[in-house]
Specification:
- By secondary structure, the protein is of the alpha+beta class.
- It has two domains: about 1-85, no CATH class; about 85-285, no CATH class.
- It is about 20% helix and about 20% strand.
- The longest helix is centred in the last third of the chain and has 17 residues, at about 240-255.
- It starts with a helix and ends with a strand.
Length: about 290
């Protein structure tokens, strides 16, 4: 989470057990830096914090065993408080019937704390897959592209990534770029799925996609699977990618806590131009156009 509920409450000078009627500071924080987050994820060790937050908002609805929906009375926005399944629920590479595989740390490749095993998994079902996680994204946007007929699926997703993507959209809009649909070409990749593409010119062995804090993106308002002509010069080329890159760089300057990787990818027969963005915590750049 960006900030644990206890820290959110204490930022207003209260504790989770007792919050005053003026909770605007809490609301401002819990909706993220972008103000556009619509879901917060709770690792198993923080699951007891859901109830104090739910009481803070007042209006609540139990969506399923893992999700409590609360509503901000001032704006009418609904926020989903989602409990994750423990990492220990993964047995022999699977959570239930869903094949996840083994994370790098499980194979003895712990490069740093950023590569530790995830805290847990978000359970995604046919019923909740369209749950909004922010104004522009839903849970299903970040799922691994495999096991189409296996439900429930399991997802690793970090709130700072969603927040950064929303800030990038806001920055593009501030610069006059129309963004109706920022496509997530690839979000979370389970380790077993990521491994299939590892190799020269392919996926990284320890790809950040496995940790839920990376996405391959492009502005695709007409949803044809290709980057749009953002500068309206009649062509889709490096100049359009540069517009996205400049917006991402601006977000990282304004929000250094969201610094991460930025990779540029040329068009191939399989896909068009796209940009990789992540929130690994250190600056990384690769690819040229």
């Amino acid at each position: 989470m960006l900030m644990a509920p206890a820290a959110v409450a204490s930022a207003q000078g209260t504790t989770p057990e007792h919050v005053g009627p003026d909770y605007s500071a809490v609301v401002d924080t819990i909706f993220g830096r972008s103000g556009r987050l619509l879901a917060r994820f709770f690792a198993p060790r923080h699951s007891m914090e859901i109830e104090p937050i739910a009481r803070l908002f007042g209006k609540r609805e139990q969506k399923d065993n893992g999700t409590v929906a609360v509503t901000d009375s001032s704006s009418g926005r609904q926020l989903s408080l989602i409990s994750m399944r423990p990492f220990a629920d993964k047995v022999k590479g699977r959570v239930g019937d869903y094949h996840v595989g083994r994370f790098p740390a499980e194979k003895g490749r712990l490069r740093s704390a950023a590569y530790e095993n995830p805290d847990g998994f978000i359970e995604v079902t046919l019923e909740n897959k369209d749950t909004p996680v922010s104004e522009h994204f839903r849970l299903a946007d970040f799922l691994t592209h495999d096991q189409a007929n296996v439900w429930p699926k399991y997802l690793v997703l970090r709130e700072p990534l969603i927040d950064k993507l929303e800030l990038v959209i806001a920055e593009l809009q501030r610069r006059g770029v129309v963004v109706q649909h920022l496509a997530i070409m690839s979000g979370f990749r389970s380790p077993q799925y990521n491994q299939k593409g590892v190799g020269r010119g392919g996926r990284a062995q320890d790809s950040r996609h496995q940790f839920g804090d990376a996405a391959d993106i492009m502005v695709d308002n007409n949803q044809d699977g290709r980057l749009d002509d953002l500068n309206h010069d009649g062509r889709v080329n490096a100049k359009d990618v540069r517009i996205m890159v400049d917006a991402i760089e601006a977000v990282e300057r304004d929000y250094p806590e969201l610094v991460g990787g930025l990779g540029l990818y040329r068009a191939t027969r399989a896909h068009g131009l796209f940009v990789h963005v992540d929130v690994r915590g250190t600056r990384a750049r690769w690819g040229r156009l």
